[in-house]
Amino acid sequence: MRSDNPPCGLLVLIVGPSGAGKDTLMERALADYACTQHIILTRRIITRPADAGGEDHQSMSESDFDTALKTGDFLIHWHAHGLRYALRADIRDDLARGRTVLANVSRKVVGTIAELRLPIAVIEVTASREIRAQRLSTRGRETTSDILGRLQALDWQAPNGIDHYRVDNGVDLNTGIERFLIALARACGGDTPIHHLPIDTGPRLIGFLSLRHPLHDAIQALPAPRVEVDILGRPLVLEVQWVDDDRWLAPNAIGLARATLSRLGLIAGMPLQLQPAPPPVGAPALRRKLRGHSLNEDEFSSVVHDIADNRFDEASTGAFLASLANHLNDNEVIELTRARARIAQTLHWDRPMVVDKHSMGGLPGSRITLIVIPIVAAHGLIIPKASSRAITSPAGTADTMALFADVELGPDDVRRVVNGANGCIVWNGRLSHTPFDDMTNAIVRPLDLDSARMSVASILSKKLAAGVTHLVVDLPTGPQAKLQNQGKAQELKQLMESVGAALGMRVLARITDGTQPVGRGIGPNLEARDILKVLGNEPDAPRDLRDKALDFAGALLDWAPDVAPGKGRVRAEALLSGGAAKAQFERIVDLQGRRALPAAPGPFHADITAPTSGRIDHIDIWRLNSIARLTGAPGDTLAGLDLIANKGKRVEVGQPLYRLYTSSQSTLDRVVAFALTGNAFELQQE
Amino acid sequence: MRSDNPPCGLLVLIVGPSGAGKDTLMERALADYACTQHIILTRRIITRPADAGGEDHQSMSESDFDTALKTGDFLIHWHAHGLRYALRADIRDDLARGRTVLANVSRKVVGTIAELRLPIAVIEVTASREIRAQRLSTRGRETTSDILGRLQALDWQAPNGIDHYRVDNGVDLNTGIERFLIALARACGGDTPIHHLPIDTGPRLIGFLSLRHPLHDAIQALPAPRVEVDILGRPLVLEVQWVDDDRWLAPNAIGLARATLSRLGLIAGMPLQLQPAPPPVGAPALRRKLRGHSLNEDEFSSVVHDIADNRFDEASTGAFLASLANHLNDNEVIELTRARARIAQTLHWDRPMVVDKHSMGGLPGSRITLIVIPIVAAHGLIIPKASSRAITSPAGTADTMALFADVELGPDDVRRVVNGANGCIVWNGRLSHTPFDDMTNAIVRPLDLDSARMSVASILSKKLAAGVTHLVVDLPTGPQAKLQNQGKAQELKQLMESVGAALGMRVLARITDGTQPVGRGIGPNLEARDILKVLGNEPDAPRDLRDKALDFAGALLDWAPDVAPGKGRVRAEALLSGGAAKAQFERIVDLQGRRALPAAPGPFHADITAPTSGRIDHIDIWRLNSIARLTGAPGDTLAGLDLIANKGKRVEVGQPLYRLYTSSQSTLDRVVAFALTGNAFELQQE
């Protein structure tokens, strides 16, 4: 059982015989179940080459191991099967911050670790001899006699006073993972099992409890019935609805809707730890803000934490966010940035300079990130880029990159890729996206709040936590962009740069043309094609995309110590033209995990033509986005649209303006019909 | 079935043989079930004296009836049992405004009414011969042969094409009312029966529907799953939670929690009319306000309607109210007042001058209303006063008045009382309180928003709708009052008076001392005692209460055309001292429905004494309120506290400061213990 006084984490030692499937269970549980997002998996250090296959580990040479041992870098170390193993000493820091840490260790060191007097529990993963023998033989790492030797070690009991949970991983993988999660939840103090109730509560986080639940009276005494659940170390508050029928819900269980299970990445049967939700500590700060006062970092931090933990009702959160949208002075943006950085994922780089590039978005196409990162990385700057998936647009950078490589990387893998190729292009969902983002997006978007100033804090806090020292920001500006005019763009540019400066970060915000798409394709596959043409220096590569990418890469390279001021763009051009950028891109793709590129877009396509002759005066970005979404992008990665004509160009009646790609004729018909109900291209007769 | 195009009301004709209990069912349904709050009960006009007993009606002389008939004041008229009957013509206006109107009519006129081509339905209330004979004989209005004659009329069928529902009122009254409500709901188009689900959803308005409900797909296509239900003509939006188990909820039903049934005054089995909730028409106006724009009357009106109908999610409503609390310019207060007046209950008085008195409240005791109204009414001014019950305080004016007389009067009864006694003191719950108040109070209070400027619109809109022409407002001001300082009080005074002027209402706002209670008693019974002492000119009547009441009555009388300017207070004093005010109070009490006054407070009591000697420097109003609430007031009307010492007075150690009254020794012990944990009276040593 973990202590009742957070922050006090738990070190969960995963033990079990070879072939029981410890590593697989741990990795799959952490990769596939969002409930584990606050859990830290610590890799063992082993004196075995990294590419030797089998269990995941951090490889270390014998001599490095000796050095680390002397400098106190290990929490504990041991020998097994002729190799040397260790756990890193910084686990202590994670535990002090209240985190749950998983470590795959040998049973024989459990007693020694117990002597360290850390809060620990043991989960023993087991499987029958037959199953283990079968698994071990497929590893091909050991001889049959080795395998037989391992299979003898079976009966084992954790030292006295240490909680010991057993997981039988002898059935299929999913059963094993579920049993593992349940054992983990019990180790973390969970005692109230989750029961799936056949009620769909929509996006609202509701926990159903029996009127006869032991906490009933204590929860009803609250101003509003809310329960705090501990999900493997992450606190979260659920609104309570009471059930008065034991056939529906047993008095000792907590009922959750399927959507809640899936949103929180929980499974039925997992026990949670419950307590009446304490009042939000940020309530006084929130009320101060509503009454027009300015908040400082600590005040913002309390509110941000409470919103992330769902401690406020929606009326309070809505009122707070509307208030931020209207009144957030420059200093408050700085304070809010610092407060948000506290909950952002931290990354540490032992480099004096870590660069990044960010776009305020809203512009279709404009997929320059996949060109900028390899150029900058090819020069040798560190650029760990985390991008979003599309939410309302036809593609996000992560959607397009996902065609080339795996983008769902955790912090350890990001470190590995960046160490190997100076840069990465990964999805921000596991890296920099926070529960606070989910909670606020669900309110800011439907209310259409002016979130520009808030977003400065959002962006910079994540960069700050991720160790970024130099940042270039793209501010597409135009009547249909997030920044509607030069005035707003200028205001935001100055705010970004000054807040960055106050936080010790060099920020350069560039106001760019947000009146038309950049590049030709809109949709993952078509954008990927444009990017490959630019990286490959193909003659028909979209010029505007190439130019914009070089501008941004150049701005970043201007900061490089070995590039003369103002010569960044020249250097960028050289890296792109000479093929170094392309080679670097391939290196990044390989390290992230290469995927087979899909072939051609479509296969169905149709052209939308000019209804009259004239000069293209205006492109309706919103309409173009809608049309591109209707083709099926980004879900259907082969769908999208391809611009044929550009703004300012003269077209004759009947000449194609853009081409639609869909995966079915019926979708194509529907999109064409919609496209013909209006004009995405406005033609001016000359 | 009512039309799908509101506003288009429904005239429900209630027919049935004498003794079936039509009037009783209608009256009880309307008095006891909040779901009927939008239904209008039209009283028949009968050429029979008003005090003749039996069914409720508006009495009219034969000659007045003839005149009204000639001037077209009747929708329809008929003869029965030697009397003449009629329905008022203004029913057409109510129907045009989409209201459901109930009318008790003779079966033989249904055909004639049908020819008027209004939307009508018929509910026939029946009972067995035996039961009807029994009921009729207790009326004592008719002879046995009359009764027998009536009991012959039984079989009857509404004319073709008119919906005809039958209610068997032959069991007990509650069963009859439930059957009547179900028939009424069916007449109003209800087709989805309410099923009580054993889930407590708290204050949230949730409708449970089966995943297999016919509207599932249409509702799921909405941005958020919400259903609009029509409750006897009142639209209301419920958040939808889906149930995936036919044993819990049949696919054709709507599940509601017990608390929802009770809040909306619904009963299980009543059918509702459902449709996917259309998007709130006020959403653009709400967003404009969130972005800092000012709104006009129409925009406010759309948002106010949508909030009252629960069309917005809480985040939107919270954001909107927080925005109003921070930014509401003077003109917006006027526009908001006009918008809110549209949904307020309207009252019409054919008098050039209708006065009223309002208090911003927050001060314990200070129950001057029960003194001011009779004084002003005794002079001859019309003063129809609607007051609140206590929400967080130990008593509201309506709580105290409820000791003397019935306060739960509807508009018709208010008119009757005021016509008879010039004034009334009734609960505002059925008169001027709106669903919008419920929705906003639930957010403004927990968020502790500064609602002072909003409340000007709230107060004045109701007075405007109620036909008030002259209003005096009490603004108690002090560090613990709603208005904390003179600056805020002055600002609000000027706002109230100028907004009133813009709306054609004379408003005088008086800033009063809000640093200590007025009167001695706190709690319904103790306050009633103080009031009777003042009205009875008893020598030990609390001076401060008498003075404040005379000030406010005087201010109102200053406006009377037959009182010389500045002589209002003198006139008020004469009316009070001479006993006219007391007599008028008794008249009001009689007309509202006199109640037997409970005897003495308590019976348990204890004194809290001065811990040291000194001058009473400060009285902690909040603490005093808490202590008074702890005694059980206002629920326990005999509980409360009595001030013995006043601010500024010198007391010796051990001398009593105030006396607590409770209904049990254990409560008394608990309150005393709490009272001794701190000092409600601050003593300054001299």
UniProtKB/TrEMBL annotation, chains A, B:
Q: Which organism is it from?
A: Salinicola corii
Pathway the protein takes part in: Metabolic intermediate biosynthesis; 5-phospho-alpha-D-ribose 1-diphosphate biosynthesis; 5-phospho-alpha-D-ribose 1-diphosphate from D-ribose 5-phosphate (route II): step 3/3
Q: Name one GO biological process term.
A: pyrimidine nucleoside metabolic process
So what does this thing catalyse?
A: thymidine + phosphate = 2-deoxy-alpha-D-ribose 1-phosphate + thymine; alpha-D-ribose 1,5-bisphosphate + ATP = 5-phospho-alpha-D-ribose 1-diphosphate + ADP
InterPro entries given for it? GK/Ca_channel_bsu (IPR008145), Glycosyl_Trfase_fam3 (IPR000312), Glycosyl_Trfase_fam3_N_dom (IPR017459), Glycosyl_Trfase_fam3_N_dom_sf (IPR036320), Guanylate_kin-like_dom (IPR008144), Nuc_phospho_transferase (IPR035902), P-loop_NTPase (IPR027417), PhnN (IPR012699)
Show the SMART domains listed in the entry: PYNP_C
Query: Corresponding gene?
Result: phnN
The GO molecular function terms of this record are: 1,4-alpha-oligoglucan phosphorylase activity; ATP binding; ribose 1,5-bisphosphate phosphokinase activity; thymidine phosphorylase activity
Write down what this protein is called. Bifunctional ribose 1,5-bisphosphokinase-thymidine phosphorylase
